[in-house]
Amino acid sequence: ARPVKISVHLHPYGEGRKLLLSRDITALEQAETMRRDFVANVSHEIRTPLTVLTGFVETLQTLPLDPQDRARYLGLMAQQSSRMQTLVNDLLTLSRLEGSPLPGMSEWTPVHVLMTQCEQEGRALSGVLMPAGAKPHRLHFGAAPDSDITGSQTELLSAMSNLVSNAIRYTPPGGSIEVKWQSLPDGRAEFSVKDSGPGIAPEHLSRLTERFYRVDRSRSRETGGTGLGLAIVKHVVQRHGAELRIESTPGAGSTFCIQFPASRLRPAAALRGLSSS
Ligand code: ADP
């Protein structure tokens, strides 16, 4: 059984009498602990690049540096600023997701638009992260079906590209990444990203979508991770009535799938007999 926390309060009640009021505050306490942890995590994540930046500013101000060293320091400072920028962007995305109304059914996006965007971003990221002379990733992007999906295009794209970006960031050079969209027999559709990366041990799987939860901290930081990507994916998935599935075998890679309900899908305009103009 889980421990329960009860708050007890004596309330004046009539003449000289008191009423004993008790309230279960377990959920309240848990929410408060989560809020405190979140603030501590955010502060820590911001403080690290800030400390590095302050150090470099001091160096630039006090030491006479030759132009080459100066350029190198400025490059490192740019890296830290961009890290903070990514973190702030992800935090804003999360807070918008938590505070905005659920995406309706009025905006429809062709699936191929989302798939093309994922492919372009994925190929670009893989190129940027690849060390010089390393064997490139084998990237395979499947064909998109002639269907549309309804919901927020921005949110859907951010969830899908987060999964692609993770696969690329965690898969070593020469590894393979396969991105697919397929219709399931029951009318649902599945977007999946399969990689041949390091895989994830079973004990981590249930915690991956927690904010700032990372299995491999250094790899996450090295490749520009904020620890918020899968938390964003989880929110978008829930807001679209979809399901996130993660299968992984340590040493043999991972597959992340988003399964969309049939109610969010329809055949593309041409197949519905409508003019696409
Ligand atoms: P991050 O910005 O650290 O990548 P995410 O929320 O996107 O944050 O992912 C949480 C953690 O899950 C990562 O730090 C990493 O340890 C693990 N992870 C996510 N995707 C993969 C993957 N494709 N292969 C191996 N580990 C992964």
UniProtKB/TrEMBL annotation:
The EC number on file is 2.7.13.3
Kindly indicate whether the keyword Transcription belongs to this entry.
no
Give every Histidine kinase domain span: 41-264
Name a biological process GO annotation: phosphate ion transport
An example Gene Ontology CC term for this record = plasma membrane
List keywords of the entry alphabetically: ATP-binding, Cell membrane, Kinase, Membrane, Nucleotide-binding, Phosphate transport, Phosphoprotein, Transferase, Transmembrane, Transmembrane helix, Transport, Two-component regulatory system
**What GO molecular function terms would the record report?**
ATP binding; phosphoprotein phosphatase activity; phosphorelay sensor kinase activity
- Top-rank taxon of the source lineage equals Bacteria
What start-end ranges are recorded for coiled-coil regions in this protein? Answer: none
Q: Where in the cell is it found?
A: Cell inner membrane
Entry function: Member of the two-component regulatory system PhoR/PhoB involved in the phosphate regulon genes expression. PhoR may function as a membrane-associated protein kinase that phosphorylates PhoB in response to environmental signals.
Task: Give the protein name, as stated in the record.
Answer: Phosphate regulon sensor protein PhoR
What organism does the record attribute this protein to? Answer: Variovorax terrae
| Full-protein interval shown | 172 to 448 of 462
